[in-house]
Each structure stands twice: as structure tokens, then as C-alpha cells.
Amino acid sequence: MESFYYAAAVTFVLLVSLHHLLMGRRKRLPPGPRLAFPILGHLPLLKKPLQTTFADLASRYGPVFHLRFGSRHAVVVGSAAVAKECFSGDLDVAIANRPHFPSVREVTFDYTMLTVANYGTVWRTMRRVATVQLLSAHRVSIMSDSVIARELRAMVRRLARASAAAPGGGGGAIRVELKRRLFELSHSVLMEIMAQTRNTYSDDADEDMSKEAREMKDILEVIFPLVGVADLWDYLPLLRWLDVYGVRRKLADAVNRRNVFVYKMIDAERQKLEELERKNSEGGADDSDEKKGMISIMLSLQKTEPDIYTDAFINGLVANLLGAGTETTSTTMEWTMTLLLNHPHVLKKAQEEIDSIVGSDRLVNKNDLPHLPYLHCVINETLRLYPAAPMLLPHEASTDCKIHGYDVPAGSMVLVNAYAINRDPAIWEDPEEFRPERFEHGRAEGKFMMPFGMGRRKCPGENLAMRTMGLVLGVLLQCFDWSRIGDGEVDMTTGTTGTIMFKAVPLEALCKPRANMSALLQKI
Ligand code: HEM
């Protein structure tokens, strides 16, 4: 009997070893560095920012390589051809999930937000509401004439007033921290579209941000740097149990503040909706969806489908869009202005185009944008060099699949290095140079870049972002002259934390109303 147990145990061990051996043989993972640490895998070897480290690794291991992030497989894609393969056909679906990290869980109500939800019903419903009610071409077009134009006028007015109040008789150059103004604008546009709420401003000419935008910026400045794909806190349970670095505490505090902020918006909308319904029952109100904000529309849907449109669902979607829409758009505009300051001839050429097409009797509006091709080239060139999400958002394989002929096991994280793809020397001549002319006269047609991603999880806010950036940059260049503070070039160092490529040092610039615009600026 004893020998029977012994034989059974040996057979079992042999079968398990054979299975591992065969599986190991059959799996052909992409190449990658051999040296890895126990438990942590390659994590300690990765210098930040990751996009440049990954570009170096791609030159050694090829367009798709394999790393271990803790016990997780990570596959990094670094060429246009493989990225296109990833985001078409069945593979696009197979890698449409998002990896789940403890830090992300802290800020996304258990991964139920649009940006981080797995590919499935919740994601589909959120994406549909966001696309139809906020980000469709039709909505964006209506918003351009109303909300965006109004907020932009307010921004120009504040800058002109601050300049008029400048020491030495006014009208001179003032020092402006641009990111704050650009964040304020992106934020107030989204707030108005979602809740038809105007931000609270004091009359102080020096105030560059509303109370609400300041609060949201503070919240996002805590959250974004703590939510990345390769942070030790996410991989080492001990760090989390002891809450080393205070990550959990900081995230919980930021989420509480964000909840207070968003629920206040929702409550205010609920009251407005009740008022509207009361008037409507008396026969006197126009309650068409076109006139409502996104939150009101979801609150109406809540009445018929309460299980789907819960308060948590609405809160999550609003918080998510405020986060996804503000930092990306304002950071891209900050990079654009930085590049323009370091390339004054490009700035001048963009201004000349605006002067000749729009003139100085009115502000740039949405109908002008198709007639300002050089401005469009400037924005495209910025998106190529400084994509706000340089590795998109992380994807995850829901099933075993193949990328570029290599095996990618289910559960692997798939990272696409858009930053490196956009600078691929095989596609772009002198790829590191800022040269908007490369997009002129259809010259870049057929060339590939992916600042907004591709496939099912592609950014749904591209329309709104492109329209906002066109109008804001167009008006800022039309109304003001911009110059650097000091003689040297503006620093281009990128931040190293989180998934958004911030400018390490916020841009400050000198801003002076243009002489040909003084009559219009006084009327605004
Ligand atoms: C210059 C501005 C922007 C850039 C460069 C940008 C870029 C991106 C990228 C690269 C992704 C990830 C795609 C992927 O994972 O494959 C993404 C996702 C997303 N973006 Fe944007 N974005 C911008 C503006 C906006 C705006 C204005 C909004 C909305 C108000 C928005 C909402 C979202 C959402 C909700 C997702 C997640 C989509 C999903 O997972 O299904 N973005 N964006």
C-alpha cells in the first residue's frame, strides 16, 4: 500500500512538471531582459519616465517586448505596425480590459469608472452616455458657440484687465502661469456642459482661477501622480498594509473631497430638474434634452432605470470626465505654448495666419478653424511630440492571445508606447524637431501617430479636445503677444509620475495685449 502512495505521488509530480515544461515550451513570450528581481520582477530596473526607458528597451528587444511587473506579465508595444495590429479585429477586443491596481481601486469606486472599467456592460453604458450626451460632434458644435466661446471671452477679459492694471500705467506685459488659466478654462467648459453651472469668480483682476477649478486642480494634483502602472505601492502588499508614503490616506482624502464636489453638482441639478418638471406640469417649460446638462439627463434616466443610473454611477462618470478632460487638454495646450515660446518664428507665422483670415474686429470662432490650417498643424505637431497620455491608458488581455506572433497570456498588461511611435524615425523625418510644416499641404497624410489611442478604448473626447484647443490657442495668439521670461529657452523636462505627461516645471510666460486688438479687447 505504501508503495502505491509513493508511486502515485511521484506520478503526480512528474505530470505537473511535464505540464509546466510543455506549457513553457508552447508559450513563446516576446523577448525581454533576462535579469529580474524575485517578487518585483523588472520593476526596480525601470527608470522613469517609462516612455523613454521603454523606447531604449525597444531598440534592444524589438517592437514588442516582455517584462514582469511583480507577478504580472507586461507586454510593451513600440511600433506603429504592431500598434495597428493590436487595435484591429479580434485582438482589439481581447486587450480591451484595463489592469486593476489597488491605487486605481481607491479612486474609482471599485473600477466602475469609464476609463478603468473592464470591457463589458457597465463600460458600454457609461461610454454611450458620455459620447451621446457630452462628446458627440453635434454637442461639441453647439458648445463651441455657447459655452466655450463665453468662457474664452471671460479668460481674455481677465488677462486684458490684469494687463491694464499692471504697474507703470498698465497695458504692459504681465507674468502669467498658463497652466492655471488653461485648466480653469477646460474645467469651466466641462462644468457648464455637465451641470450648467457657472464657476464662482471674484472681481479681483489678479485671480486666475475660480474657487471650483482650484479645488478640482488640487484634488487631481494629488490623484494623478499616485496612479501609475509601475508604482511599488501597487505591487507590494506590505507597503499598502503599512500605508508607506501615506498613499492610501492621500487618495482617500482626495476622493472624499471629490465626492463632496461632485455630489454638490448633482444635488443642484436635481433641484433644477424638479423645478423644471414642476413648471412643465404647469405647461410652461422647455425640457428638451438639448437644453439640459449631462447630469440632468442622467437624473431623468434614473427615474426609468434606477438600477443602472444610480447616484454612484452618475458621480463616477462626472468625476471621471472632469479628470480625463481637464488635465489632458490643459497640459497639451501648455506644451503647445511652451513649444511656441521656444520657436518664436512658428508663433509669428500662426499669428500672421490668424490676422489675415480673422482680422482684429472679432475673436476667432469655430467657423474660422477650418481656415486656419497652420494653427491645426501646430496642435498636431504638439500632440505628436507631447501626447498627454504617452503610453495611452494601460490595457489588459482578457484571454490568451498573440501579438506579433508572440504568446500573450490572459491577464497580461499591454502598454502601447505612443510617445515612441509618434517619434519613430522610420515614419517622421528629424522626429525630435518641432516642425509644424511637416503637416502642411497634406504632407503627413498616411503617416501614423496615436495621441488619442485607437480601437474600442480610443479617447471619446478627441472632438471636444481638438475644438477647445483650436479655439483657445487661436484666441490667445490673436489677442496677445507672448514671450519668454528671461533669455534662455523654456525648460522642456517632463514629469515622471502617473500616466499623464505633465511639464515638470509649470510654464510661466509674459503676456501683452496686441496693439491691433486694443479696440476689441476694451469691448469684451
Ligand atoms: C488633448 C486632449 C486629450 C488627449 C491627448 C487624450 C488622450 C487619451 C488617450 C490616449 C486615452 C486612452 C486610449 C486607450 O487606452 O487606448 C484616452 C481615454 C479617454 N479619454 Fe481622452 N484625451 C484627451 C481629452 C479628453 C477629453 C476632453 C475627454 C472628455 C471630457 C476625454 C475622455 C476620455 C475618456 C473617458 C477615456 C477612456 C475611454 C475608455 O476607456 O473607453 N479625453 N484619452
Automatic annotation (TrEMBL):
Q: Which residues form a coiled coil?
A: 259-286
* GO MF terms held by the record: metal ion binding; monooxygenase activity
In Swiss-Prot or TrEMBL terms, this protein is called Cytochrome P450
Q: Which family does it belong to?
A: Belongs to the cytochrome P450 family.
Tell me the superkingdom of the source. Answer: Eukaryota
InterPro entries per the record? Cyt_P450, Cyt_P450_CS, Cyt_P450_E_grp-I, Cyt_P450_sf, Plant_Cytochrome_P450_Monoox
Keyword annotations of the record: Coiled coil, Heme, Iron, Membrane, Metal-binding, Monooxygenase, Oxidoreductase, Transmembrane, Transmembrane helix
Q: What is the lineage of its organism?
A: Eukaryota, Viridiplantae, Streptophyta, Embryophyta, Tracheophyta
In this chain, heme is annotated as bound at 459
> Entry's Gene3D superfamilies?
Cytochrome P450
Give TM regions.
Answer: 6-24
